[in-house]
Write a structure and sequence with these properties.
By secondary structure, the protein is of the alpha+beta class. The protein contains 10 helices and 11 strands. The protein has 4 domains: 59 residues, Arc Repressor Mutant, subunit A (Orthogonal Bundle); 50 residues; 67 residues, SH3 type barrels; 92 residues, Alpha-Beta Plaits, CATH 3.30.70. The termini are far apart.
Length: 334
């Protein structure tokens, strides 16, 4: 990045929010000393940058200071249009019309030279989003209530229940072609990950009488998993006597592709040889049945190293499937 572009980026950032020299250095990929020199240069040019002291201090642009309209360079335009294009792949959003009109507006302000440069790039670049079929009519309302830190009553359809939940939404995001809501659930007394398209009613609700600020958990439970003990607990397995267990799995290339889609497990993958990956990490016991289903689905593309009990659980599922199809084959012959 040229120095003039970096100075402009600093002015734009400080016009939007307070920043520290360290945070600007991280975003612009330069040293903290370089940022301090740039800020000194801006003040010498008459840009009203002022410093805030204290632990939460930093730099900010004086209120009311504005810049003339700016042109996007090629990479900035490509970044913006590529992100907008990925949003058009979602089956439903709170801004169905706007996701198209904003692309036209962005293109209309670009110079012909910039458009000529990014057009061939956009034809060969994409952010992959699986095609889904659903509607999210309550997403806009849910976003409003989440921003206001409200308690929300939702009628929710999971794999095992259809019921009303009282939740405190923490975050809403799009991933894998769906919209998700991380929320503290009063029924479950913990943070859960819910699919927004499975909500048929969304209404503001009064907080429960004994409501406390929900503690943020680093890994909310994946939506759709059964509550209670894992099925394997019926065998009094020692590995499930604790709150979590250590998982170690060897994966093929195909297995790695499936596992890396998971936002929690994907970051635990390590390549150990050509076309061979290792997954190693801690999982809560409540995720046991989910993990058994996942690695059973992967078949020969996943080899459980530890715990041995999970390998036994997967073998049990394979035997159940074999018995089912053996029975069907006998019935067809008779």
């Amino acid at each position: 990045m040229k120095r003039s572009d970096r100075l402009m980026a600093i002015v734009l950032a400080l016009g939007q929010r307070q920043e520290t020299a360290a945070s600007l250095a991280d975003k612009l990929e330069v040293s903290r000393r370089t940022i301090l020199r740039d800020i000194q240069s801006l003040t010498e040019l008459g840009v009203p940058v002022y410093a805030l002291n204290g632990i939460k201090g930093g730099y900010r642009l004086m209120e009311g200071y504005t810049l003339p309209p700016l042109q996007l360079d090629t990479n900035e335009a490509l970044t913006l249009l590529l992100a907008l294009d990925s949003m058009t792949a979602y089956a439903d959003t709170p801004f169905n019309k706007e996701r198209w009109t904003v692309m036209d507006k962005v293109k209309s302000i670009l110079s012909p030279d910039t458009l000529d440069k990014i057009a061939p790039l956009l034809k060969h670049m994409t952010v992959e989003v699986p095609r889904r079929s659903y509607t999210v009519p309550h997403l806009s309302r849910l976003m409003e209530l989440t921003a206001q830190a409200k308690w929300v009553s939702v009628f929710y359809r999971s794999q095992s229940h259809q019921r009303t939940l009282l939740i405190r939404p923490q975050k809403i995001y799009a991933a894998h072609g769906f919209w998700y809501c991380e929320a503290y659930s009063c029924i479950h007394q913990e943070e859960r990950l819910l699919r927004v398209d499975r909500m048929s009613q969304v209404e503001e609700a009064e907080p429960p009488t004994d409501a406390q600020e929900p503690e943020r958990e680093p890994e909310p439970k994946r939506e759709g998993k059964q509550s209670g003990e894992p099925a394997a607990c019926k065998r009094n397995s020692p590995v499930l006597a604790h709150a979590s267990f250590t998982l170690k799995v060897k994966l093929s290339y195909r297995g790695m592709l499936e596992v890396e889609r998971d936002e929690h497990l994907g970051e635990k993958l390590v390549m150990i040889a050509e076309d061979e990956w290792l997954l190693e990490g801690e999982l809560p016991v409540s995720e046991w049945d989910w993990a058994v289903r996942l690695f059973y689905f992967l078949g020969k593309d996943a080899q459980i190293i530890t715990p041995a009990e999970m390998g036994e659980a997967i073998a049990d599922k394979a035997r159940e499937t074999l018995r089912l199809y053996s029975k069907n084959e006998k019935e067809n012959k008779s």
